[in-house]
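User: Second chain of the day. Same drill as before.
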Amino acid sequence: MLSDKKFAVLIDSDNISAKYITCILDEMTRYGVITYKRIYGDWTSSQMGKWKMELLENSITPIQQFSNTVGKNATDSALIIDAMDLLYTDHVDGFCIVSSDSDFTRLASRLRESGKEVIGMGEDKTPKSFRAACTVFTNLEVLLDQDEEGTGGGAIGKEVIEQDITSIILENEDKNKATGLGEIGNRLVKKYSDFDVRNYGYSSLSKFLEEMGSFELKKSNNVVTVRMKDNRTRKQELDDYAVWLVKGSGKNGMELAALGNGMHRKFTDFKVKDYGYSTFSKFVHSIGQLEVRENKNNNKTVYLKKEE
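Assistant: Same format as last time:
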């Protein structure tokens, strides 16, 4: 069970502020039980004062690492060595690496290669390489203030996410399968390790999807499924207009791109994904009176189907 998974939380004090500690530990309750809590740094430094106050209160074990060499991050080395020791003892199911430093990218990849789950946590400045190496990556600023409006600088655009969700639903529909809300969440995290609805100001994935406007959610026996909204009435209006435009272009047909431009001029909010299609070409293929062929210049062109 998820709640039985054991995690080691390893914190790079050189790159993370003490203000995040409560958020970090609270977030990890979503994944399992913390069996190791260690923080790495030079505890003789006056800069560690704020962290020292948090150690006893949160039962975190400080690992002393003197900064013996200028320009060389000894803290990184100590954390990496400890992580590999824990990996070989096989006492944990996963690791939480808390840092905004790209130096831990290879460590995260190595732990995942060994079948361990890697939860990354860092500030918005964390490089993409480390984010992508983790199973899941969470921005600490989002955890600190989930009520803050706006989108985090590192978040994927909502348009991109909406297209990905549409593709998932269409793929399942081709296999006559319903799409569960859980499947959408899992597949988005697999594609974007730092995907988190809280980056967009939402507390739940269901609310995030509902407000996109393209999807309908249905709950049955505690299972939530997602499908494209039924836009059949407007679809007929769009189909009729597309046919009218192609008719007006004559026997030479109308280039696909020109038809798309004409449709968008008439219907400014027109998006093919709202009707269950991933491309405009697929949308046109759905219109019974039209067909898409290449013209003599090898450009995709839309013609009226000849009556049989």
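The longest helix spans residues 158-174.

User: Great, on to the next one.
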